[in-house]
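So, is this right?
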Amino acid sequence: MAAYPYFVLFELLAPLLEVAGLITVALGFGFGIISPSLAVLFLLAAFGYAILLSLLALLLDELGLHRYRRLDDLAAVAAAAVVENLGYRQLTAWWRLQGWWASLRNGTPVWGEMTRSGFAGTTPLDHGSHATVPETTPGAARPGAQLPAAAPEERGPRH
């Protein structure tokens, strides 16, 4: 019961509010109701806030998990976090709104029946149960042998 209001407000209604806000500003600007300087300030504030949130999320991820070993990789992800907010996010909001509308008109989509086929004729790597190493070098594990758990990768200096 605590999570449901969050999902309704931020997941279900978010694309509607985002697209409606962008259309309202564009129409207000087009009809001269909103001054050009106010429209630019609104868009800078909206995009600036979205970019700030994306970069802060990246910072928290990096501080907690240290995913990127090289500074170049981190810079590329940061650049993608900025660019994502300048067009792709608005397209995603539009697509989510289309899906929302289609679900209201047509109800829940029917995907059809999925028949299970099992894992007959597959190796453990095909369905991800345990990694195996074929015997190709002296001292390598025999085929089908389970590998020991991998040690956590040590974090090296950033270049």
Remarks:
- Confidence is low (pLDDT under 50) at residues 127-138.
- DSSP finds four helices and no strands in the chain.
- The helical segments are 3-12, 14-30, 36-65, 71-106.
- The radius of gyration is 25 Å.
